[in-house]
Amino acid sequence: MAASSLFILDLKGKPLISRTYKGDVGPGEIENFMGVLLQREEEGTLTPVLSHGHVHFLWIKHANLYLVATTKKNGNASLVFSFLYKVVEVFCEYFKELEEESVRDNFVIVYELLDELMDFGFPQTTDSKILQEYITQEGNRLERGGGRVPSTVTNAVSWRSEGIRYKKNEVFIDVVEAVNLLVSASGSVVLSEVLGTIRLKVFLSGMPELRLGLNDRVLFELTGRGKNKSVELEDVKFHQCVRLSRFDNDRTIAFIPPDGDFELMSYRLHTQVKPLILIESIIEKFSHSRLEILVKAKGQFKKQSVANAVEIAVPVPSDADSPKVKTTAGSARYVPERNVLLWSIKSLPGGKEHLMRAHFGLPSVEKEEEEGRPPIAVRFEIPYFTVSGIQVRYMKIIEKSGYQALPWVRYITQSGDYQIRTS
Amino acid sequence: MTDSKYFTTTKKGEIFELKAELNSDKKEKKKEAVKKVIASMTVGKDVSALFPDVVNCMQTDNLELKKLVYLYLMNYAKSQPDMAIMAVNTFVKDCEDPNPLIRALAVRTMGCIRVDKITEYLCEPLRKCLKDEDPYVRKTAAVCVAKLHDINAQLVEDQGFLDTLKDLISDSNPMVVANAVAALSEIAESHPSSNLLDLNPQSINKLLTALNECTEWGQIFILDCLANYMPKDDREAQSICERVTPRLSHANSAVVLSAVKVLMKFMEMLSKDLDYYGTLLKKLAPPLVTLLSAEPELQYVALRNINLIVQKRWILKHEMKVFFVKYNDPIYVKLEKLDIMIRLASQANIAQVLAELKEYATEVDVDFVRKAVRAIGRCAIKVEQSAERCVSTLLDLIQTKVNYVVQEAIVVIKDIFRKYPNKYESVIATLCENLDSLDEPEARAAMIWIVGEYAERIDNADELLESFLEGFHDESTQVQLQLLTAIVKLFLKKPTETQELVQQVLSLATQDSDNPDLRDRGYIYWRLLSTDPVAAKEVVLAEKPLISEETDLIEPTLLDELICYIGTLASVYHKPPSAFVEGSRGVVHKSLPPRTGSSESAESPDTAPSGGPAADQPSVIPTQGDLLGDLLNLDLGPPVSGPPMATSAVQMGAVDLLGDSLMGGSGGSFTPAPSTTAPTNVGAPLGSGLGDLFDLTGGVGTLSGSYVAPKTVWLPAMKAKGLEISGTFSRQVGSISMDLVLTNKALQVMSDFAIQFNRNSFGLAPAAPLQVHAPLAPNQSVEITLPLNTVGSVMKMEPLNNLQVAVKNNIDVFYFSTLYPLHILFVEDGKMERQMFLATWKDIPNENETQFQIKDCSLNADAVSSKLQGSNIFTIAKRNVEGQDMLYQSLKLTNGIWVLAELRIQPSNPSFTLSLKCRAPEVSQYIYQAYETILKN
């Protein structure tokens, strides 16, 4: 159905650790993986699904590792990739970082986890918080008869353990909106979308039942509250704790949260917004002599707000040299290893406009290979502000012990894929 | 302290040392030793010699140690089957352990020990675990049944485990239900006939309830299982859809795709008039768009699937922008996005798309740029209104002089010329400027085709073509064939100046080449030119059929099958599982459920904007189609015209030439080479090359038969594991046949050929089995004439002349569909009595009359008459009314349907008017096509 075996390989394709889940793919088959990968890369036809004979390899790369699942059947490819990313997530939670060294250092626990994560090619328990309850770093010494399977493993609520206690019951809600923007070289907006996420940090005792109220337009229409100050959320996605059928029925977001940090939901908006930070650039290349760059950045949001940690990365050719830069605010430095000129502005208030001028030398002999035209990439954060105008109207917390709990809400807008093409 | 220390013992006598440590009394030392063993195993050292010592450590209360020993067992039990028996006792004991974690561990591990001898000992413990009080153990035991089945299916069936597994579908715990479903699906997949998953509305209801409660993976197992269910009617389909739809909001992309699969499949059963159908269609698009924010590998899978979905349902048309390529997308995502952009391109968004494509075409990644340039060409062909802008964009790109951009641009411009003749030829001059920079065969061939096709407008066409001739033998076959044809075209257009050139190319092709295709084509031209230049002109310079807009659409039956496999490898490869999964040959192909609740049998897009993919979206194969008999009394909608049969200039095969009057008059003034100078270097059989040709054609030429189209490729080798099938249909002295050429382009020998037809509109069926006498060696071709009859079962197809064929060989079964020309069904006794004709003409109501224009036909009435008669269209009367000739004709189809025709020919006008009357007006369209084909060839 899904995977026959799972391999963790180093960059050369040598297996560090592997687990066979089904008998149909021979252990030697993995030796073909690297060859196929390199060949396809050479041909420019590299894809995440490769095959050799009747064996199919589905792979991802993480740090200096390849994670490869194999199958001989018509496996569910999307399930396998989702699973591989889940494996990465679990290992990262266990070892902080997943790379060659941490796999070697923890091979016993890696084996244990691989045994628990998947059985006969079917993904099983992949929630690292639950796994940590019965697969621990210290080598679990369970006395006979004293052992117990955390009931969470098989409960309908498979993401939260029972018996959690906090002195102070609190929930922190982060509403984060990432703006993806693509502007053409001529300055017109090609694509603009907002990807919102609501992240929760939950410090609550017991088995609390939570309900989140948003100014969701569909809900407002359902309840006859009109369209005022509501937002239209496109394609909402939920953490598995949320009762999807309930949301589908009456737009109620009801759930028993996992403990600690998790992403409750995400949504997408397609409303065309004007670029929050407007970038205008003139990049003039005088072949064999110099490169002149002029960049203007303007905050196009309301005056009370401030964009923090603004970083504007302007691409420069890899053979540029001797940079000279002037800015009206912030500082700019040349980062040759990324081939960019990085202009950082600590804070850019709404309505303000700043300039950067730069001059580079270019060698008189031009290099052979052509370079791409990378876009200008912008990063920023605007606290206390959302593009969509989404609001948390309430968070109801009900637990049978009847404690009082406080929700805290924070709004922030960030850059996502924020790019301006250069000519 | 980390585990890496275990990897470092590399002293001599390591195994010996480990042995000692494993047998140590100290628990801690034992555990350390086992870890060292596992470490050695991990780096690939053979530590199987330690088997008995490691197994001795199995009886421990330390869970970690136990897991390590189990791990060791799983790896080495197969190589030490006799010793593996030693472990059985411990397994049996562990399955009774009070700790459920240990019980589950034992049952999980023993399923992974693939040793036949052991399996029977494991049945009792497994039986207990399947009824364990702890759901963790039950869910593990459920999977163990699938494992055991994989090792010894008979044992599992005999022990009744399958029934226990089925009972687990009703378990109170959703995780257990999910694993039971997964295990059953897995078993059912390898035993398609077992009827294990006989799902019924009750069990479906249980699954849908568990769906809301189990983990994300469990949801996928259940959804994938649901997708195999066939609801009994549209109401049940709708109610399942309603309960599956909330899954579209799941954060896991795989859950979303599996839900999309269920919805896409069951939607097929819903009537499109239903409000719910529209609502559902709208709900599908946003989740698909959101998948594009996932990790790149998941994006890739999603894009491959979206590519299928948009061919099936006309959605996402307003979401073009999300498919725009981002600079940092991996190349495989970029290429897939480009594909979808073209699929969604329509008049409404073409400006945006073109601006993007132009941007991409100036990037630096060669593969991406090439595809972007091709995409511009495809837009031009797809959206007529944009053709002009596309051409000017391509010209801009040619000006960049970037070598590979220029070459790609020329290749696509050739196609644009084919699609819009006599419109953009003014750019030829610009193209010619770049002649020297072309070094890729495809681009060279395209350029040569252009020069030959438009030779009369290019002053120095002869010089240009001559320049290619110098290195003739170094060119690829593609270029050689094009060059040969182009020079012959040039000669026919400018005979006076180019006689030498044409002689040169003919002798290069026939005498100095080892390539049979090239030689054959050379001979045919040679003979044709030397016998009848007028006929040669008609043949070589014949008007080419228009190329179709979407050449890369997936064949509808395959598309339907792939829709059933959304999210799986099949949907990524765009191939049915049988094409890449070993031993799946006998597996039943999945297909979409038949539509109920509405009479329509074909999915046509909701809105069909002109030029959109909808306009010629292939229709779904009706599985419950009406019988043809119904044609006569059922008032069906107007027939949809099928895509024209793909014929290309390159495939100008021998058949049409030979069928024509090759042996006819010898009025040719051009005799380049008498047969005595024919090549003798190839050995005896070819020694009399031209003479042979004579004999052959003599034979064919005397047979009376209707027009036979040149063979076209029906099944490309790519889609059929190396088997290429091309063919055509013919009718000769009352018998229909399918003329096939099977070519083995694979590396292995092919044998055991068989052929079967799906039910079709006229009951066409093979009259004899497919006879391929010897196995087909690699690179070998065989020509077969398969006699057909019309007594097969009948089902109305869309288009009417669609024929679905399955061909089997020792490798696999392949499917393709093709359109047959209707004139092969015109019977010999189709001449109606005059009186009868008049009466029938009056009798058929006027609304059954259809009029068509046959353009650009320069034949006179008598020539038309005799030409048509060759194909069993009989002229009953001829009248001259006010200077125009009126021909009254009749024909009869194999199933007895009469068609009456009136053909109006004006001497000064090359356009004929054809009026057809028939009691089954559905066929008129195809009769007209047959007229066209016969008259123009």
From TrEMBL, chain B:
<dbReference type="InterPro" id="IPR002553">
    <property type="entry name" value="Clathrin/coatomer_adapt-like_N"/>
</dbReference>
<comment type="similarity">
    <text>Belongs to the adaptor complexes large subunit family.</text>
</comment>
<dbReference type="InterPro" id="IPR012295">
    <property type="entry name" value="TBP_dom_sf"/>
</dbReference>
<dbReference type="InterPro" id="IPR015151">
    <property type="entry name" value="B-adaptin_app_sub_C"/>
</dbReference>
<dbReference type="InterPro" id="IPR016342">
    <property type="entry name" value="AP_complex_bsu_1_2_4"/>
</dbReference>
<keyword id="KW-0472">Membrane</keyword>
<dbReference type="Pfam" id="PF01602">
    <property type="entry name" value="Adaptin_N"/>
</dbReference>
<dbReference type="GO" id="GO:0030276">
    <property type="term" value="F:clathrin binding"/>
</dbReference>
<dbReference type="InterPro" id="IPR013037">
    <property type="entry name" value="Clathrin_b-adaptin_app_Ig-like"/>
</dbReference>
<feature type="domain" description="Clathrin adaptor alpha/beta/gamma-adaptin appendage Ig-like subdomain">
    <location>
        <begin position="707"/>
        <end position="817"/>
    </location>
</feature>
<dbReference type="InterPro" id="IPR026739">
    <property type="entry name" value="AP_beta"/>
</dbReference>
<dbReference type="InterPro" id="IPR009028">
    <property type="entry name" value="Coatomer/calthrin_app_sub_C"/>
</dbReference>
<keyword id="KW-0653">Protein transport</keyword>
<dbReference type="InterPro" id="IPR013041">
    <property type="entry name" value="Clathrin_app_Ig-like_sf"/>
</dbReference>
<dbReference type="GO" id="GO:0012505">
    <property type="term" value="C:endomembrane system"/>
</dbReference>
<dbReference type="Pfam" id="PF09066">
    <property type="entry name" value="B2-adapt-app_C"/>
</dbReference>
<dbReference type="GO" id="GO:0031410">
    <property type="term" value="C:cytoplasmic vesicle"/>
</dbReference>
<dbReference type="GO" id="GO:0016192">
    <property type="term" value="P:vesicle-mediated transport"/>
</dbReference>
<dbReference type="InterPro" id="IPR011989">
    <property type="entry name" value="ARM-like"/>
</dbReference>
<dbReference type="InterPro" id="IPR008152">
    <property type="entry name" value="Clathrin_a/b/g-adaptin_app_Ig"/>
</dbReference>
<dbReference type="Pfam" id="PF02883">
    <property type="entry name" value="Alpha_adaptinC2"/>
</dbReference>
<feature type="region of interest" description="Disordered">
    <location>
        <begin position="585"/>
        <end position="622"/>
    </location>
</feature>
<dbReference type="InterPro" id="IPR000225">
    <property type="entry name" value="Armadillo"/>
</dbReference>
<dbReference type="GO" id="GO:0006886">
    <property type="term" value="P:intracellular protein transport"/>
</dbReference>
<dbReference type="InterPro" id="IPR016024">
    <property type="entry name" value="ARM-type_fold"/>
</dbReference>
<keyword id="KW-0813">Transport</keyword>
<keyword id="KW-0007">Acetylation</keyword>
<feature type="domain" description="Beta-adaptin appendage C-terminal subdomain">
    <location>
        <begin position="826"/>
        <end position="936"/>
    </location>
</feature>
<dbReference type="GO" id="GO:0030131">
    <property type="term" value="C:clathrin adaptor complex"/>
</dbReference>
<protein>
    <recommendedName>
        <fullName>AP complex subunit beta</fullName>
    </recommendedName>
</protein>
